[in-house]
Amino acid sequence: MTFSVDKVRADFPVLSREVNGLPLAYLDSAASAQKPSQVIDAEAEFYRHGYAAVHRGIHTLSAQATEKMENVRKRASLFINARSAEELVFVRGTTEGINLVANSWGNSNVRAGDNIIISQMEHHANIVPWQMLCARVGAELRVIPLNPDGTLQLEMLPNLFDEKTRLLAITHVSNVLGTENPLAEMITLAHQHGAKVLVDGAQAVMHHPVDVQALDCDFLRVFRA
Fold this sequence. Notes:
Elements lengths: L4 H6 L7 E2 L2 E2 L13 H13 L10 H20 L14 H16 L5 E5 L8 H10 L2 E5 L12 H4 L4 E7 L11 H10 L3 E5 L11 H4 L3 E3 L4
Helix pairs in contact: 4-5
């Protein structure tokens, strides 16, 4: 796929800046992405002319804001091919989304003696919530190790699963290494052992299509700020 770098840069006002006498090249989008004019303009228009609480009133502005939010939910569900827009929950970030799963589903389904599997390449947002859950209930946290080339030691994965495995929490694409994990085979293996699967998809959705029905994951966390 080819594209015009100049055309893409023109969408981002911040990239008109110079730093140290050179055009700005922003390479920290894995932490927080710059906003294109289309997003900035849409948010400004909402705050100037349409701001109101959603699902909290029957007056015109509230109804219009609610309709806009639900239309976004529907469009987002189509973007990831969810079965229904009702499967999508808006959160403030991937960290909050993972904590929501850990403190709702996790508290109800993980018990003493159970185990959760993560990988060595996870963002802290997909490590700490499971560490805290395991410490709270007396479960075990198991970790898939890395190879020297930054890929997972997948040959170790079958040995980590057993009848007490409740969850595989895995990143789709590493925010540090750029490694893309073979989710299909990992999810199939997890489900064969009766475990649920949470995918951290924050670094994947902007690079290629993500189809949650094809992946067959149980939770997908996506957020770009």
